[in-house]
Write a structure and sequence with these properties.
single chain, globular, 2 helices, mainly beta, 8 strands, two-stranded antiparallel sheet
Length: 127
């Protein structure tokens, strides 16, 4: 977490959406609420990218997009494209304990219900 970010609170909502409340360490700056909606699920193995549409208040959102979009601010495998956040699951898994499972992964979907994330995955082992 950045030295300027004091807290991040993720709140899943029903209907494949969630809010992220970011509290910064600057005095008199209120928590920033960013809303996300799952726009497209990853398709394994062809396109392992989860696409999220995000929104933030008008000009603040445009400013934040330019600030966050620089390559050194997001982890490898995460890219900002306008109002979409693209999360390359395979790239994020590289070098982790999840990497050996990727060849067996046939389906992975992220869903939300009130106060919960639901991960639905399908593995294929053997021919």
């Amino acid at each position: 977490m950045s030295a300027h970010v004091r807290d991040v609170d993720i709140q899943p909502r029903a209907g494949d959406s969630f809010d992220v409340l970011v509290t910064v360490s600057w005095p008199f700056v209120p928590a920033i609420k960013v809303s996300f909606a799952i726009e497209r699920q990853p398709q394994f193995p062809a396109s392992p990218v989860l696409v999220l549409r995000w929104s933030l208040l008008g000009a603040v959102g445009a400013f934040a997009s330019r600030f966050i979009a620089s390559p050194d601010r997001l982890p490898a495998g995460v890219r900002l494209d306008g109002d979409r956040l693209l999360v390359d699951i395979a790239r994020l898994a590289e070098g982790t304990s999840a990497a050996p499972w990727l060849p067996y992964l046939r389906s992975l979907e992220l869903h939300t219900v009130d106060d919960r994330f639901v991960l639905d995955l399908e593995l294929e082992i053997g021919a």
